[in-house]
Amino acid sequence: MPPAGAAAAFSLVPAREADFERLFEIRLLAMRPSLERIGRFNPERARARFRASFRPEHTRLILDPAGQLIGCVAFGPQDGALLLEHFYLVPQAQGRGVGGAILRQLLGEANESAKPIRLDVLRGSDARRFYERHGFVETHRDEFDLYLERLPESA
């Protein structure tokens, strides 16, 4: 891995249904600290939630330059927008520029399609600041989540 702050190389490849278990493990690694902070860490509930929303046809594996799986991101159509979900990196890949580089690529795709991007983050999660730095704004909230949106930039 490159030093912290250096933009890391990565590749995105299509996921398959068979990737569910290893992506679920990455989700647990990435989400556990935030969920524990609010007293909501429950592996069984996390599995059920991930299973219910896992769309392999819209999910991409994130691979490092050596071809090792370091994360995933789901990005696909929903209700006239693009839904960004399941954007997880293993802890050792976080803070190294990979997430920002991937998000910039997805923003470009959204701009080309002229569709807004919607997502939700856990209340109190550091992810909120990450997305706000990339132009997302809060649209509403519920007991546990904040809902954010970014409108496409005009060409």
TrEMBL record:
Entry keywords, A to Z: Acyltransferase, Transferase
All residue ranges annotated as the N-acetyltransferase domain in the record: 10-154
UniProt cross-references to CDD domains, sorted A to Z: NAT_SF (cd04301)
GO terms assigned for molecular function: acyltransferase activity, transferring groups other than amino-acyl groups
Entries under InterPro entries matching the protein: Acyl_CoA_acyltransferase, Bact_Acetyltransf, GNAT_dom
Superkingdom of origin: Bacteria
Pfam families hit by this protein: Acetyltransf_7
Protein name: Predicted acetyltransferase
Natural source organism: Aminobacter aminovorans (Chelatobacter heintzii)
